[in-house]
Amino acid sequence: MNEPGAPLDTPVDQALFGDRLDCSLVLPVTVTVASGPGRQSQAITLLQGLAQIEDLRKDDGSEEHGDLPLLAQRMDAKLDLILALVGRLAMRADGLPERPLRWSRTGLRVDLDAAEDLVPDTRVLVRLQPVEWLPDHLELPATVIAREALARGTRVWLAFAELTPGLVEALDRHLFRLHRRQVAEQRRR
Fold first, then answer.
1. pLDDT in tens, 131-149
2. Do the domain assignments include residue 3?
3. What percent of the chain is helix, strand and coil (3-state, nearest 5)?
4. 6 is a domain residue
5. What is the CATH number of the domain that holds 50?
6. What is the pTM of this model?
7. C-alpha dist (Å) from residue 29 to 62, 94, 97, 108, 125
């Protein structure tokens, strides 16, 4: 998450993240050479469902669970643990590796082990698990706009391509929630 007024790393970072809300996370993600729109309606449904769940959970630090009975709070905590466990197990089975990334509504920057086939202007499909506790993923079409060799692997910058307005709105809301949660966690430290 960039703080307001903080310098951006590169001109490519400025293009993807300049005046937009973005989050730096470690999430399960893969990038494969492919063309097509991805499953945008499924992505919208997933992001809207996550928003509804998070509205009910109120776990972003802005409100407490104090108005819930103690038994309901315990059940909510147990359900969170079970969902996290199922998510980790499914992630192992699905094979999406966790990677550091920076994510905005216009694209993402991700560090990959190997990306020889990901050269600028290549059309790709990004498979991204938006939250660690839910073993489902988004499929987002993107285009490689830059790449850089790292000591271990390759950093690629991907601009999302041809997203529907509904998906852009759902991504904005999801990223806002992630950003708000990161701010709340920083305040607790």
1. 777 777 888 899 999 998 8
2. no
3. 40, 25, 35
4. no
5. 2.40.10.220
6. 0.72
7. 29, 11, 6, 11, 10
